[in-house]
Design goal:
Length: about 170
């Protein structure tokens, strides 16, 4: 029996089913549900952003990162034969005329979210010890998110949106 990914060539009795332990499945579930929530929040915030660069960052975050990661995680769910959680709406449109959100607040919400996601990745990577594939996927997500974090810091510095503590000189 030869197994390549989820395809089996030969007798089914000797095929090894995909393996993941309970902690890994829970971690994967958390990764997917959090991305669903982040996608929905980002779509809402897109409606209020005015800064052209910020709009581009939000759009790229959705299509270039979040949606691609969701696709990869959903493929793992299918490979492991785990039912998917309910998916949020494809898009969220709200009237943006209220002026409730300023661009700096939108940035700060997104930036805080990225910081939380980074620590979440590390926590979930720590529990994934059975499935090398899942662990490597989350490590890739962490590395990608670190790159995004770095770019967001540089962007915020150009806008004057980084809240740095005062310099300390004893």
């Amino acid at each position: 029996m030869v197994q390549v990914g989820n395809f089996h060539i030969g007798k089914a009795e000797t095929a090894a089913p995909p393996v993941a332990d309970v902690m890994e499945v829970a971690a994967l579930w958390d990764e997917l549900v959090s991305r669903y929530d982040i996608i929905q929040l980002t779509q809402i915030l897109q409606n209020f952003a005015h800064d052209v660069d910020l709009k581009l960052i939000l759009s790229k975050g959705l299509t270039g990162t979040l949606e691609k990661q969701v696709d990869r995680i959903e493929k793992e769910f299918n490979r492991l034969q785990i039912p998917l959680p309910e998916r949020p709406p494809k898009s969220v449109k709200v009237p943006s005329t209220t002026g409730i959100f300023e661009d700096e607040l939108i940035f700060n919400l997104v930036f805080a979210g990225i910081q939380n996601v980074l620590s979440g990745h590390v926590q979930r990577i720590r529990v994934i010890t059975t499935s090398d594939t899942l662990r490597k996927m989350l490590i890739e997500f962490l590395q990608e998110e670190l790159g995004i974090f770095d770019k967001m810091v540089l962007y915020a510095k150009t806008k004057g949106w980084i809240k740095s503590p005062p310099k300390f000189a004893p």
